[in-house]
């Protein structure tokens, strides 16, 4: 049975390390270095298009949780069939863009599996000016809230959103939906290309269930130590 926002989650399982690296060899080296400090990994388009689906299968076989961040968006039949293929791999999360038709197709495609569908609301590298430039009349907050309700109504398990919107969305949709927040940076860390960032503890206190962290761990001089520090920050913030 797929998890939801009310499921108990350990502090370590709440950290999802993004393997946003150029090749599988580097990703595998990071997984080895991180060892049992990390139980959950995100594989995005960069690594997936470089052979990462085999890595996803291997990580699942090794008992790790895997989040495939593919951001599917296509005609309904294609999304449904692609989601069914992903479900067979045994990964935990899959992202699709949070448009009603796309969400409904993904939910149909994962039927009978434990795969959780996460609707992407607004990218954390976007702000109100970026949405306006793309032709959206609503700002980030209104757009995220609308897509949150559409994700819930479609029967998907959760959302990808900035921690900046987590508290208001949690109040809007209740405790059941999973809230997964990228754009996480430890206190004093670089924002890189993110515009809406939070520290790990602040994101948890805002209502996030899972935190996606990439460069603060993978580009750290001591990745395992960096991961352990984030887990400690999460543990201190969990109610």
TrEMBL record:
SMART domains: OMPdecase
A GO MF term: orotidine-5'-phosphate decarboxylase activity
EC code(s) of this entry: 4.1.1.23
Catalysed reaction equations from the record: orotidine 5'-phosphate + H(+) = UMP + CO2
InterPro entries reported for this sequence: Aldolase_TIM, OMPdecase, OMPdecase_AS, OMPdecase_bac, OMPdeCOase_dom, RibuloseP-bd_barrel
Keyword vocabulary terms for this entry: Decarboxylase, Lyase, Pyrimidine biosynthesis
One GO BP annotation of this record: 'de novo' UMP biosynthetic process
UniProt KW NAD keyword: no
GO CC list: cytosol
Listed CDD domains: OMP_decarboxylase_like
Stretches assigned to the Orotidine 5'-phosphate decarboxylase domain: 14-230
Pathway(s) per entry: Pyrimidine metabolism; UMP biosynthesis via de novo pathway; UMP from orotate: step 2/2
Enzyme class of the recorded protein, top EC level: lyase
Active site as annotated: 69, 71, 74
Keyword flag Nuclease: no
SUBUNIT field: Homodimer.
Protein role: Catalyzes the decarboxylation of orotidine 5'-monophosphate (OMP) to uridine 5'-monophosphate (UMP).
Name the UniProt record assigns to this protein: Orotidine 5'-phosphate decarboxylase
